[in-house]
Amino acid sequence: MTSLKIKTLLASLALAASGVASAQNQLLNVSYDVAREFYKDYNAAFAAHYKKTTGQDIKIDQSHAGSSAQARAVRDGLDADVVTMNTTTDVQFLADSGVVAKDWTAKFPHDASPTTSTMLFLVRNGNPKGIKDWEDLIKPGVQVIVVNPKTGGNGRYAYLAAWGAVREKGGTEQQAAEFVSKLYKNVPVLAKGGRDATATFLQRNQGDVLITFESEVVSIDREFGAGKVDAIYPSVSIVAENPVAVVERTVAKKGTAQLAKAYLDYLYSDEAQEIAAKHAIRPR
Asked: Are the C-beta atoms of 281 and 117 separated by less than 8 Å?
């Protein structure tokens, strides 16, 4: 082999090695729609922590949309290193597809859910329709903005919270079904994800009440200014867990398993839990 070919081969090997090294220091977090601000802050904190403890620089990319749509994208080939969702069903869907570990709930504390949230109502300032509880959402003339349960965990939690409110107050399954049916008849449009629902409510000025995660109050105040909405806590709501998992398929290919685990482990740290609380995401 000539010296030129050897040099070319060595250069190619060096380039490949640098590419592998780069991939090992880069993560893609595929997450749900309304978590983007939290993870923007968390990523900066984790990168600083990782640099301090290992001396290595890392790059973290984010992808946000409706959680179920994100889960399908990962199953279909989106190279997420980690998924941080808002419903266990979306992560279990990936486990059933062989993309994350079958025992993913045992990989991290609290069934791999480092934070939780709940569903509440956001109404326009002053609450002109006098909305106080679930029963007010089925009144004539009240328009409800909510996420499509087929595309986002936000929407499924809203559906289940409405159903559960009837059951918790002594209603039957049939009464719960009837209530939910009446509720969705007051929904003029189903949003694709949590942030789309917020845009529909505040930018397009549709609806009298928005059912969404508690954390949206902080995001709305930051984006639209304080005082645009009032938060109404219904008498009964639901615990919304935010599960996380390493995407085994991707980390095996990229060599990022250790970094991915460290990234999710740090979500349980005091610093990360405090960041979550600042975003109105409930710490464990």
From this structure: yes
Kindly provide the residue ranges of all beta strands, DSSP E only, lying in the chain, ordered along the sequence: 26-32, 59-65, 82-84, 115-124, 144-147, 190-191, 209-213, 229-232, 239-242, 244-246, 282-283
For the chain, the domains span 3-113+243-283, 117-240
Q: Which CATH architecture has domain 3-113+243-283?
A: 3-Layer(aba) Sandwich (3.40)
Does this chain's domain 3-113+243-283 share its CATH topology with 117-240?
Answer: yes
Single-letter amino acid code for the residue at 177: A
pLDDT at 21: 46
> Which pLDDT belongs to residue 17?
43
Secondary structure class of 262 (helix, strand, coil) = helix
Per-residue pLDDT at 274: 98
- Is residue 113 helix, strand or coil? coil
Output the pLDDT for position 19. 47
What tokens were used for 207? 């609806």
* Predicted pLDDT of residue 1: 55
Name the architecture of domain 117-240.
3-Layer(aba) Sandwich (3.40)
CA distance 120 to 86: 15
The model carries a pTM of: 0.81
What is the three-state SS of 220-250?
HHHHHCCCCEEEECCCCCCEEEECEEECHHH
Rounded CA-CA distance 146/209 in Å is: 9
In the chain, what is the greatest distance between 2 CA atoms, to the nearest angstrom? 85
Residues of the chain under the 50 pLDDT cut: 13-21
